[in-house]
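Methods, example record. To illustrate the input and output format used throughout this study, we show the complete record for C6orf190. The sequence lines were provided to the predictor; the line carrying structure tokens was produced by it.
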Amino acid sequence: MERMAMTLEKFTRSLDAKSLPRVLQIQSGYYFQGSVYELFGREWSFSYGELLKIIGISVTRLIVELQSEGSKSMTVDLSLDYPGLFRIVADKRPYASIQEIVDSVCISPECLGQPEFRCPEELQLAEGTIQAEESFRLTALRTKHGDSHVDCEVTRKDSKHIFTVKLSHTGEFYECADDQFYTLRELVEWKMPKGRHCNVHISNKMC
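The corresponding predicted structure is encoded as:
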């Protein structure tokens, strides 16, 4: 049993939804109105030793840092229904392994909006070679003979090629630029990497 005390906010930020349900024991806490701990529109307090079973996480708002040239940055809260379309700025920080990518992003066979990555070095794999700087996306997570790996899809001249890469494969992997537009809700639900900040440009402000 894990015995490490932390705030509920810190716990939920670091939580992998795949690990749910999780049971927590209250050490102390009086949670004020308007916080992430508000229940049924009023303040709530818990008694020491009470147990909470976390069965799901629902994001209702975002804390956003606004940055403009020549002015100080400011932090605001935004509702997921905030009007406007956003374009993602590719993260310049590399991922150190395929495992780190898998832990950070959603993996899906659906190509629309699926993040793509590149490596400055060639990837020599059983099925062939992914060339340096060639973009690829992760489409499935599998286990074979006790080893976990992912399927990587590369598109060449309108034909798709599938490569198998072990999660333990290390290197420098960078996020590719994304030219699609997303609502704030779409960013939260399937575009924001876990454990990293997501930088975006607002492209169409409708309010």
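Annotations derived from this record:
The two ends are 48 Å apart (CA to CA).
The chain has a mean pLDDT of 81.
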